[in-house]
Specification:
This protein is an alpha+beta fold. The chain has 2 domains: about 70 residues; about 130 residues, Beta Polymerase, domain 2. It contains 7 helices and 5 strands; from the N terminus they run ααααβαβαβββα. Helix 1 packs across helix 2 and helix 1 crosses helix 3.
């Protein structure tokens, strides 16, 4: 009986991960908690249901993309990475790093391009955008550095070629420690301008 309940629980958890992934892909949602709650509501799961981990949703999202968007995902990702490079070159004085799904290759068509930039004067980022007459919005973003330390950091949101970009502004010494990924709890991978330029370079075919 315990085994049967466990199987049913696993099936529900898998279904919730798949539905959350669909919501994230089709509606451009990047909040795992919201996607989980919406999936539970749509599937009629009780409040006691064991919700999937963020990493399980990422796996379901990769599978959803492979099944339903394989023909367009590579082109979309390539464009997102080209725009990311343009944004990074514009903000190069702040040592930008690309992070998140656009770097990992799992971005949805609605995904924001996520950058980390580094300066002890956050308003300098806004001033740089003003110089290029780029409209922007300023907000805040919570990042978890470790189990005990959570930072509230400025974030600057703008668009490049109509694609959304979000730059989280760290102190200059924040380049030495990457925050934890909301997906798997490990330090986020960061890529500098050189690495991203390599990602968007198309190698010529070899005979």
């Amino acid at each position: 009986m315990t085994r049967l309940r466990s199987i049913r629980g696993d099936d529900l958890r898998r279904a919730l991960a798949q539905e959350a992934a669909r919501i994230m892909f089709e509606h451009g949602v990047d909040d795992y908690g919201f996607a989980k709650r919406k999936a539970a509501e749509r599937l009629g799961a009780s409040e006691f249901a064991v919700l999937p981990k963020n990493a399980e949703i990422d796996a379901a999202l990769a599978e959803y993309t492979r099944l339903f968007a394989a023909d367009t995902q590579a082109e979309t990702l390539a464009e997102q990475r080209r725009v990311a490079l343009d944004a990074m070159e514009m903000l190069e004085e702040f040592e930008p790093r690309l992070v998140g799904p656009v770097l990992a290759g799992t971005a949805t068509p609605h995904q924001e391009i996520s950058l980390h930039v580094f300066t002890d004067s956050p308003e300098a980022v806004s001033l740089r955008l003003l110089e290029d007459r780029i409209q922007y919005r300023v907000g805040e973003h919570r990042v978890r550095m470790n189990a005990e330390r959570v930072l509230q950091l400025p974030v600057v949101q703008f668009s490049v070629y109509d694609l959304p970009v979000e730059a989280t502004v760290f102190p200059r010494d924040g380049i030495r420690q990457s925050p934890l990924s909301p997906s798997d709890g490990r330090p986020m991978r960061r890529a500098g301008v050189g690495e991203v330029r390599g990602l968007v370079t198309i190698e010529p075919p070899t005979d």
